[in-house]
Design brief:
The protein contains five helices and five strands. The protein is α/β, with parallel strands linked by helices and 123 residues long. The protein is globular, with a radius of gyration of 13 Å. The chain starts with a helix and ends with a helix. The model has no long low-confidence stretch (mean pLDDT 94).
Length: 123
């Protein structure tokens, strides 16, 4: 289900309890995280209703509605207090950079950031 890029991201989720996946698209990463890494709960967040609807469909297909919640939000406008690991993968570096400037991240223990361009901006 996961391509090589997201399979690599998945490895960095070991040992964390609550994932927030910003730009989740179809929720493949949260699904595999809950099934395979010990992540107990996940938030699948996207700013587009179409992909979020597909994410909800996929979550239901794996019977994970009690463990993965979907949220329609832009960037990190939605950041639950219980999240301890954040993933922003496959989006532009400028988008990631601007999103990261918006919040206080005290609850987060790890950021997994994988920009598809402008990586220097994220660094």
């Amino acid at each position: 289900m996961l391509d090589e890029r997201l399979s690599t991201v998945l490895k960095y989720l070991e040992g964390f309890r609550v994932l927030i996946d910003i730009g989740t698209d179809h929720a493949h990463l949260p699904i595999m995280a809950v099934k395979n890494t010990g992540v107990e709960k996940a938030y699948a967040v996207d700013n587009k209703p179409g992909p979020l609807s597909q994410a909800e469909h996929n979550i239901k297909a794996y019977d994970l509605e009690s463990k993965i919640a979907t949220h329609l939000a832009s960037g990190i406008d939605f950041l639950p207090e219980d999240a301890d690991v954040l993933v922003m993968a496959g989006m532009g570096g400028e988008v990631i950079y601007r999103a990261l400037l918006k919040k206080d991240y005290q609850s987060l223990k790890r950021f997994i950031l994988q920009p598809n361009n402008a990586a220097e901006k994220v660094r």
